[in-house]
Fold these 3 entries.
Entry 1:
Amino acid sequence: MERTEKLQLGGVFKLECFNKHGDLQWEGDLYNAVVSEGLIDILGVTFGESEKRTWYLGLHTSMPTGIADIQGLTADDIGEKIAEFVNYEGSERPAYEGELVTGNSVRWSNASNAAEFKITLADNATVTVNGSFICSYEDKGAPDKSDPDAEKEVLLAIARFDTETGGRVVRNEDILRVTYVFTAGS
């Protein structure tokens, strides 16, 4: 007998950009790649090898494009292979505060508490944001390799706008709202 059911894991980042007056400027859904490091962590937590983590959302201006390159990304690649966008208020990434949502599939979502990034640029400057990621490291930038806990940090998933439409422009005082919905189904 052939078995046809498989466990499927995946997620979607929803980015919404509002100007300083609260008007929606653009929005986009980015379907993510759960990287190998993230899958290993999920299995480790499930089967007792890893501790449950706190997750944080980040933004990037570029990342690798090849599937194999994306699957091999780690938290250590933030700042090197992943160009993190850090021009927003605060010294830390916003925490991902999700909750369980059930229905036709099982989802973990922060839709009721989306992360917000208040953009801080020079008055007339613009930057193109190309996507988002979720990792276990709170501080902006790559984990400090001299920190004994740094090797424990994990990049769970990363996504970018499709190459046809490219990234999206943000301006000073824009608010970028990020929702992440992680889904498991069979």
Note: The helical segments are 36-46, 67-71.
Entry 2:
Amino acid sequence: MKKLSILLPFLSFVFWMFMALPYVNAQENEGMTLLGRWTDGPVTTVYVDGQMAYYNMGSKLAILDIKKPSDPILLKEFETVGTVRDMQRVGDLLYTIMDENGLVIYNLKDINNPQMAGSLPLYCYDGELVVRGSFAFVSDGFQRMFIIDVSNPAKPAEMNKFLLGFKPDQMILNHEIIYLAGGFSGLMGIDVANPKIPKVVHNYVCDYVGDLTLLDDQMLAFLSSDTLHLLDINNPEDCKLYKSIGGFGEITHVAVDKGTLFASGVHGNLQTYALDAQYNVTPLGTTPAQVEDPVYELTVADNVAFQAKGGEGLTLIDVTNPSNPAVITTFAAKGNSEGIAIRDQIAFVAQMKSGVQILDVSNPQAIKPISTIPAYDEVSKVAIDGNLLYVADGDADFHIYDVSNLMQPKELGSLDLPDGTADFLVKDGMAYIAQQSRGVYIAEVKNPQNVKLIGNYDTRTKVAGIDQVDHYLYLANGDAGMIVLDINKPGNPKMAGLYTDTRNVRDVVINDHYAYLADYTNGMHVIDIANPTDPVEAGSLFILGKSERILHFNHFVIVALDYRGLAVMDVQNPASPKLVGYYNTPGSVRDVQINDGKIYVADHDGGIAVFRIDVTGGMTY
């Protein structure tokens, strides 16, 4: 007890310091100028209010007129400052939550000219939102719920914050109680009748609490594995399990409308169930299963079901007859931008199941689609060499296309590989292909119609990045550090050197006699490879974020930091690199390329972005 009494003041101090944490993305954008964006991406959230439906497409927001559900009309698309994770409309104001931008409020009084009304920066990765009266309740990425006064939308003000102890998957309001789905942490009910002093009124412990829906004012339903649990909430301070109904299969989302229960999940279809007065369920109908198209969100209103289906888009389903649900239409969308290659003023963007998007980027402020190469599977990486486009997909295939005619790309050849590709490099008629779990494969691609696999080196781990100089191949080999292979005989590569004083090497780029390593949570390392058989560290720099990709340009090194954007380092003195630029993008940077002095970024669900470096000096965190 004595030890505990000594620890209590310290633990209390840590708790209140944690609660007082400011918005963690304190680093200001500096040293880089955004020239333009192309924000098309997947649909991951949908919200219906009266005769309007709102849904995101990456970092765009679309508004539908659904007065006539059989013939919905797209009224407006506009670019948002980030990817909307949750939203709610109150009057003319649309309240939205975005990963890096927190609470952003748009005025939609003039639907053709949406205007940002106000914002409050918070880190809200996959955040949830409830608006009640003049207060917004927002979950952030640090297991907290913020209470925000939005009585003046131009200046939202934080009133309080509440430590939850978990990151909620969903928040739902019933009268003055907010119910939070806590996953493995169970279900929490918080009374917000006095928004300034919220209080927990109930904790319900369960193996897992997933998607929530209100069956009525007295019954709350939540998913746990393939089971739907019904919780009697008539007395919020003493919620009781009413019944559990199993056998729902791989369901992730549920909704209720007009006495019918609707369910969707990993197979993309919609299942309907009759719901009687005793909350018994009876299967009614289903739409065809589509294994490749999971549902990210489901909402039902006025006999129409809305499914947010990622790269497939937004699907509307007529459920007037629940026994025979019928698809009305799908508003198409794009996948996440995972890789990018640039030739002249043309961008080739790997967008997973949406294939390769070919874009005209001659004017970064008005990027225009040209054509699309359909995907065999999830396209994650591309490279361009003259009129030849090299494409890697998740189905362990490597494809080569002739893109001399951008409107009609033509496949020339392909290569089957044993595993998915993490990265690849094409140079002097050779392709060096880093595999997810099988090391690196070497192929001759001089004749694209007859690609020949000539050698491989099994590292027994994932090779995340790759570069090649002279007869040496440098591998970013994760926990195993950097491996140097002698490829003087491509059919029989051999280890020549190894550097292991790293944490988790995700990428490597070579310039002069230095290797620059992206070391995930450990920043960037500069390795002297004057003697490739004996690499030694020359310098390093810690960077906030997850260093995933790295690129050398003039005397700069550019590092992709996943959800934290981009960092630019001056490496004129490799022993002492300096941070000189930073930009936090709306999405999560997956790939970065340089062309004609411009930086092109594949920003996951943020689409693509184009930057210019404007360095004036050093920076500090």
Note: The helical segments are 2-19.
Entry 3:
Amino acid sequence: MIRNLVFLFVVVVIMMSGFAAYHLTSVKTIVVRPVPIDHWEDTSAVATLREALHNGSFTPTQVERFNAGYTESAHWFRFRLAAGSQPVEYSFEIRNHTIDGVELFEIKNNTFRSLGRTGSRFPFAQRPSPTRSFVYLLDLPAHQQADYYLRLDKRYENLVTELKLWKTSDFEDKEQREYLLWGIFAGVAGLIIALAFLFYATTRDPVYGWYGLYIVGLSLRQLADTGLGFQFFWFGLPAINHPDAVIEALWFYIPAMFHFQQHFLQLRATARWLFWSMQFLKYAFCLALVILIISQLTGLTQEYTGAYRLVSLTHTVLGNAAFMLFVATIFTVGLKTKDPLKRLYIIGFAIQIAGQLFILTQNMMRYRADGVFFVDAYLIVMFNFFIDLVIFAYLLAYRYRKSLDEQRRLEIDLARTQRQTNAAIIELLESERQQVGQRLLTDVGERLTRTRTLLDSQSNSPLLTEAVGLLDKTDACLDEILHDSPPPDLLEKGLSTALAELVEQRNRAGNVRLKFRLVKDGTPSDLSPAQTRQLYRIANELTHNLDKHAEATEGRIVLSQTPAGWQLTVSDNGRGFDPAQTKAEDGIGLKNIRARAQTLDATVQLESGKTGTTIRVRAKNTN
């Protein structure tokens, strides 16, 4: 199992490296256009464009990534573009898709106009370009210049963003390549989610259902963090973006993770304190999520300026508690368990926790003014996501295979138990039948003989003659019942000898000429006592039906034995019947034959037509 997991891990790493190399190589020639940008902080947050035009407090920004930290102000940016002898088309991108209000003004030829007001508090359809970030198209005719003023409003939250100027063709090329990678991510995630719920529908094991919800939550966290969720899913509900759609996705994701761990690690039995701690925290997250959704739908989060801080504080408390429980799970379960599945899960989970710890540390640093920033959080989550998919999906697939093997083993044990039970019942019936036959012979038979002797000594009369005839018929029926019973020395004689004697007996009593043939190939195994008894009973039943119902003149019994198995074939040249109708409406005889064959783990094949009927009972040796 470890070898297979390592192989899958290497394959995924190679695929991820290949995609990353392809992406970096393809966008290597795509560069950001340098443009000087000045910044002014509007502490009143109510300044108009005219006031910004006459404000002398603009200062040049020194970094590509603007980081204001927590802010209660609006922020203005200005830059100038000029076209040479050819007209140009640029795309100006504001990379932070969570900014509440965004508006870009263009001043050209002493006239100004708004290029569009948008933001995360507005419907997605109001964006100037249908992309996950805010993008404005800037057209400049030849030999003209224009000034641009950008207003960003993200008050009472942390404001961090990149301002980039692209050549429009380069920007579209970059976006297409990025959306291709995100499409691959969505396809893989969707496939894993579908398989998880398929496994749940097949096995009814809640582990797979909660794993599917866990992947749904993790995918929602990615979609919220990149802006793709607002673009493709809740585009008409901007209220979901506030205070923070990422936190909202985490409040869905963490309870699903807790529930998955409770079932997969069997914490109720192995670590009850950890189970109940998760249970309490799980309901706390769910309650917070419900309250947040209600507040969003009623507009409370948009009216209350402290909503972001309150939600962030709540998330900090619950998130730290969840993080402590996750670490406790790693040490409590990972160090004690001897189950390789649980150990591998703990390894994958530890990698995920390390990634989340890195994101938490970076966020604490980046949300300070001019804080340090290493890499986008969604890239770390993406890496963790694929590592999780490799480890967790393999573990669940392995668990699923084990559950199928266990189910097959239970089915085999059940079938074996049923065969043993049927064999015991048939053995008991055979014993009772022999006892009944012996009593009929010694008791009823003697009384019939004595009664016949007494009646013969009486003077003839019509009533006496009729009574003697009834006695003769009763005696004949008794002989037929006794002859249908297996011989007492069946096991000593062997099946082939007993079948040959059965054929002779039928030939003497019936109108059908039967023939018996024994075919041996190689050195076949000896038949067990149960096989001998049941095969004799089956042959007896079939020849009885042949004599009574087939309207045949000839019949054959062939017993074939090979090292691989055995086959009993009974055929005749009678009138035949419809096998399909007969299978749907089996008589007692055929039902008995099928039941006896089932005790031998044998199959019954029936062929019938105008030229006769052939029934084959065959089984393979299991030795």
Note: Residues 377-456 form the longest helix (80 residues).
